[in-house]
């Protein structure tokens, strides 16, 4: 099974240091990891550094990968107005680095990604006609269609309504378990992180503040320290942890 | 949405073929459109060959094309030696300018990007004007080739200047378009300066050159332009998926493994070469590089496997039809092609854009 380990990972933009010496234990396939932190903590930079889009000190170790390109990345949605249907936009994510001719298994993979995310009915729509939430789901399909072993998602639920947020995170969790895929998602909703992720890492000003099982990491003390909010965590009737934010401090 | 997500739990093992069926139909439709454009291009070529001081019927033209020995010596000379290079040059130049415009629009994410708006045509005009007004040859060359070589050298120098400036830190793709527009103004000022100092006769020659004309086409020039187009097209096609991804924005393209900066530079060099060669041989025909790609986009979408050949075919067809019109509007006079394409093509383009329900940019 694939594992990902970060070892003293750093990144700079010019002379400005964005990430300093991020080291983590090995994250294994089958897990969902929440990447948490306030705005400008370095979450997107960490993704770009893991992907090799930014240079810097330290190393990213991927062990046990079965494919040449084990990583897929969904960046934050920026919108697009290309004259492409949803089906084509997902297909082209699949076809990068491949031959021009589309094979039957490529189309099967596109169908599977759209079905997995429940957006098969959007296939014929132009991407320019989609709502922000629909675009975000298409972005997730573009990442999933690459059949990754490690899936990095930058704020995948930011444009989704509550219902779809819960559905997407449930689907990601199920797919991680079914396919032995490691999912790392940058999230702002800590309640959802508590409910849907196994591990969490917390960044603040480019430094790793905490890393471990989500329930151990997301504590009232951490929320106070990182997000400057007073909060408590209670268990609901089903035993799931619930985050209750009381006030900004 | 909800139903779809529920369905996904049962459908994962055997995905529904609906998407695939839709996509296959889409591909077939696009292949038919490309075939129709090719047929229209062939017909336009035949009509273009048939028209002129000596008129031929379409059947005579087709006979001369398929079995040259079956027609008279006179018809063979007129069709093959005189009209064919001009008619084919219209196709090659139209395709080259349209492909150049299409890829400039793709990599710069700007619907107004074209060899004309990036200053490449203006650079070529300046190079040609130097030769026409003062007999200056930037590179020593045979008399027949001084004007096109001057135009080509200046067009490429303009392209390289834009490339060099675009490599500076902090230069965005929006800045590159502004750099191009700055180039247009610089060369316009230099052209005005040349016209101020040049003789009346030279000014006329410069003005005529800038209108664009196919009449100076010869077989050797045609082979050069065709050779460049034939070399560049596969190089662009090789990047088909990556170029399509560029239209999703740099961040998305990068996330899919594309290197936007490197690809942008490589494609700019290739399409500058295409545009420089085209403009060098026929003068300024700016409109094709803008409109050909837009029509192709409306007909075929932006999957480069269809968009690239579609842009080439649309550009070739527009210029070929323009060549036909340039002969029939005023019988006995061939109006410069650049004027025709602008007068006829721009209203047609506006009609297409305004009548299309969805904005493509």
From TrEMBL, chain A:
CDD domains: ABC_Iron-Siderophores_B12_Hemin (cd03214). The keyword Nucleotide-binding applies. Residues 4-230 form the ABC transporter domain. This is Iron complex transport system ATP-binding protein. Gene3D superfamilies: P-loop containing nucleotide triphosphate hydrolases. SMART domains: AAA. The lineage of its organism: Bacteria, Pseudomonadati, Pseudomonadota, Gammaproteobacteria, Oceanospirillales. PANTHER family: HEMIN IMPORT ATP-BINDING PROTEIN HMUV. The keyword Nucleotide-binding applies. Part of the ABC transporter complex HmuTUV involved in hemin import. Responsible for energy coupling to the transport system.
């Amino acid at each position: 099974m694939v594992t990902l380990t970060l070892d003293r990972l750093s990144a700079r933009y010019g002379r400005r240091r964005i990430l300093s010496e991020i080291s983590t234990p090995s994250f294994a396939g089958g897990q969902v990891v929440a990447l948490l932190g306030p705005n400008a903590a370095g979450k997107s930079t960490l993704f770009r550094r893991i992907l090799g889009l930014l240079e810097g000190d330290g190393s990213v170790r991927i062990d046990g990968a079965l494919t040449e390109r084990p990583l897929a990345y969904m960046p934050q949605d920026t919108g697009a107005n290309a004259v492409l249907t949803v089906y084509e936009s997902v297909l082209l994510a699949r076809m990068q680095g491949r031959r021009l001719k589309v094979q039957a298994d490529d189309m099967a993979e596109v169908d599977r990604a759209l079905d997995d995310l429940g957006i098969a009915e959007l296939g014929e729509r132009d991407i320019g006609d989609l709502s922000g939430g629909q675009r975000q789901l298409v972005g997730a399909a573009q990442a999933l269609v690459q059949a990754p072993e490690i899936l990095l998602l930058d704020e995948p639920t930011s444009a989704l309504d509550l219902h779809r947020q819960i559905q997407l995170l449930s689907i990601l969790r199920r797919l991680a378990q079914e396919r032995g895929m490691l999912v790392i998602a940058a999230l702002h909703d800590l309640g959802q992180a508590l409910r849907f992720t196994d591990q969490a890492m917390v960044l603040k000003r480019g430094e790793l503040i905490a890393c471990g099982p989500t329930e151990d990491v997301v504590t009232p003390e951490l929320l106070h320290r990182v997000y400057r909010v007073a909060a408590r965590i209670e268990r609901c009737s089903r035993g799931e942890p619930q985050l209750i934010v009381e006030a900004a401090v | 949405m909800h139903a779809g997500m529920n369905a996904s739990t049962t459908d994962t093992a055997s995905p529904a073929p609906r998407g695939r069926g839709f996509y296959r139909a889409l591909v077939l439709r696009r292949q038919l459109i490309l075939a129709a454009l090719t047929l229209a291009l062939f017909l336009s070529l035949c009509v273009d060959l048939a028209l002129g001081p000596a008129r031929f019927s379409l059947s005579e033209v087709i006979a001369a094309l398929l079995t040259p020995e079956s027609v008279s010596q006179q018809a063979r000379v007129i069709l093959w030696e005189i009209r064919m290079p001009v008619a084919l040059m219209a196709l090659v130049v139209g395709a080259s300018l349209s492909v150049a415009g299409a890829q400039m629009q793709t990599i710069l994410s700007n619907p107004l990007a074209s060899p004309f708006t990036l200053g490449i045509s203006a650079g070529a005009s300046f190079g040609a004007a130097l030769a026409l007004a003062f007999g200056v040859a930037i590179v020593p060359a045979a008399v027949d080739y001084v004007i096109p070589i001057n135009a080509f050298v200046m067009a490429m120098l303009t392209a390289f200047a834009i490339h060099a400036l675009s490599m500076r830190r902090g230069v965005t793709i929006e800045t590159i378009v502004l750099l191009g527009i700055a180039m247009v103004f610089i060369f316009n000022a230099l052209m005005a300066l040349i016209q101020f100092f040049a003789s009346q006769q030279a000014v006329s020659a410069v003005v005529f050159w800038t209108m664009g004309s196919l009449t100076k086409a010869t077989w050797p020039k045609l082979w050069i332009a065709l050779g460049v187009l034939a070399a560049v097209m596969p190089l662009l096609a090789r990047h088909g998926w990556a170029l399509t991804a560029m239209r999703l924005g740099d961040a998305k393209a990068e996330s899919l493994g594309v290197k936007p900066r490197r690809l942008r530079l490589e494609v700019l060099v290739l399409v500058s070469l295409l545009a420089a060669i085209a403009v060098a041989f026929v003068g300024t025909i700016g409109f094709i590089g803008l409109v050909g790609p837009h029509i192709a986009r409306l007909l075929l979408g932006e999957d480069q496997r269809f968009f690239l050949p579609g842009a080439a075919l649309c550009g070739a067809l527009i210029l070929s039809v323009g060549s036909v019109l340039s002969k029939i509007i005023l019988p006995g006079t061939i109006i410069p092609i650049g004027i025709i394409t602008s007068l006829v093509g721009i209203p047609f383009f506006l009609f297409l854009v305004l009548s299309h329900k969805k904005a493509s940019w």
